[in-house]
Amino acid sequence: MAELPVGKTMPYNIEAEQAVLGSMIFDESALTTAMEALSADDFYTTAHKTIYTAIEALFTEGIPVDIVTLSDKLGGDIDNVGGIGYITNIVQNVLSTENLSHYIAIVEGKSILRRLVNAASEIIDISTKDEDEVSAILDRSEQLIFNILDKRGAKGFYHISEVVKSSMALLEELKKRGSSVTGVPTGFTALDSLTAGLQKSTLVIVAARPGVGKTSFALNIAENAAIRHKIPVAIFSLEMSKEELVNRVLSSEALVPSDKMRIGDLNATEMSKLAHSLPGIINAPVYIDDTPGISASEIRAKCRRMKLEKNIGLVVIDYLQLMEGKSRSDNRAQEIAEISRSLKIMSKELEIPVITLSQLNRMSESRRDKRPQISDLRESGAIEQDADIVMLLYNPDTAEESEEAQKSNIIECIVAKHRGGECRTINLAWRGEYTKFMNLDNRN
Q1: 401 φ, ψ to 5°?
Q2: pLDDT one-digit tens code per residue, 219-259
Q3: Disulfide: which of 81, 270, 335, 376 matches 266 by Cβ 3.0-4.6 Å?
């Protein structure tokens, strides 16, 4: 790590830290207020970190916090923090907790500055060593700054009691809401019933052979999330232009044939339907990036910014095999594995579901049962390993030669992997003229 310039010290404010700790011991309501905003790592001195940790432990155990219980909890560490006299002194200096929020803001601000100094030091270190590619250094640098802005770097380990409390609070909220969908709704009833919506930190792979409709399927989910539920969505289109993508959205939402839209051959009724759908589409929080050949690190960098600026709740990438890895090696399977792993890390880092489209190889076409299998994912088994959900789209009509058999317009969505539940095949209606998937009961 690079050293601080001569004469410079880490930012801290001992008096503010003492005021916060004293208030936590003095007043129980101050204790909970401080714990919601700060962690032990926000304090500069080792003594103050130790005192805070002991107070936190007493709170978790349901033991009232005062000078006596705190001294007992500190045990052999009591002398290392300045003895009972130091603890008594910081409590006696608290005349009122009225300015607690101000003291917390000072402690938090100094902590952020120290993390910024450490991040800058690491950035200088990796930049001057020049051991990685520039894109990798940029990615790491942006991640360090993002962690500070998002304050995810503030805590490392979480005691199970903290997680239990947050889980119970979530259960209570869900019970009040009365909805079985806890994640991003897809708009497909059977799929939402199976998954409870697309959950946070989930990498979803949607794969199919060309022409089955994987882009339309992902777009339909994005439309439902953004237009009907106002969830901000970022779409990375590596194959189609943003204009082509928007035309599909217009066709799907207005139920106007896409081929007529391409040539502008719309009658009055169709123009009316389009005009009726426009306000909902225009006001939807959908953000499209059609940069060709974009890399995984570039997508992660852009999504970090979008998370901070627009609070995106879903990312769609079309499609995996068109992305570039940072290594750009001759081993394409290794490169795809690297990309897949990067997308999984991104979904966890940003706490949002990431839908990534993927191609299937031709193996299914040589089998008697032409339904795709998870092993048909093209170029890398790492995709299967990293994915939380794998959905394979299959058009059974294409396996039938008779013209009559090819009129059902049923697409099978085969949930071949589901880390959070069972695997099942869901039938969806496909209206190709509108590039739209529908629930079977809505297809007419």
Answers
A1: -85, -30
A2: 999 999 999 899 999 999 888 888 888 888 888 888 888 88
A3: 270
Phi/psi at 129 (5° precision): -70, -35
Query: Can you tell me the distance from the alpha carbon of 384 to that of 188, in angstroms, rounded to the nearest whole number?
Result: 23
Specify whether the backbone of 131 is left (phi greater than 0), alpha (psi in -120 to 50) or beta.
alpha
Task: Write the DSSP assignment of 345-381 as a string of letters.
Answer: HHHHHHTS-EEEEEEB-GGGGGSSS----GGGBSS-T
What does the alpha-carbon distance between residue 148 and residue 351 come to, in Å, rounded to a whole number? 16
Strand pairing class (314-318; 233-237): parallel
CA distance 357 to 297: 17
Long-range CB contact pairs, 277-282, < 8 A, 24+: 277/250, 277/253, 280/227, 280/253, 281/227, 281/249, 281/250, 281/253
CA distances from 352 to 227, 235, 343 (A): 18, 13, 11
- CA-CA distance, 59 to 50, in Å (whole number)? 14
Report the distance separating Cα 372 and Cα 392, nearest Å. Answer: 7
- Cβ proximity of 55 and 31 under 8 Å: yes
Residue 104 one-letter amino acid: I
pLDDT for position 218: 93
Question: Can you tell me the mean pLDDT for 307-318?
Answer: 89
CB neighbourhood size of 107 (10 A): 24
Q: What is the pLDDT of residues 163-180, one digit of tens each?
A: 677 777 766 766 666 667
Indicate the pLDDT class of residue 21, thresholds 50, 70 and 90.
Answer: very high
Q: In what helix (H) or strand (E) does residue 298 lie, and over which residues does it extend?
A: helix 296-310
Sort strands 436-438 and 286-289 into parallel, antiparallel or unpaired: unpaired
If you ran DSSP here, which 8-state letter would residue 320 be given? G
Q: What is the pTM for the complete model shown?
A: 0.66
Instruction: Give residue 122's pLDDT.
Output: 84
Query: How many Cα atoms within 13 Å fall on the side-chain side of residue 420?
Result: 19
β 354-359/425-431 pair status: unpaired
Phi, psi dihedrals of residue 419, rounded to the nearest 5°: -60, -25
Residues constituting the chain: 444
Segment 132-152 shows an average pLDDT of: 73
DSSP 40-94: GGG-SSHHHHHHHHHHHHHHHTTPPPSHHHHHHHHGGGTTTTTHHHHHHHHHHT-
Mean pLDDT of 114-136: 82
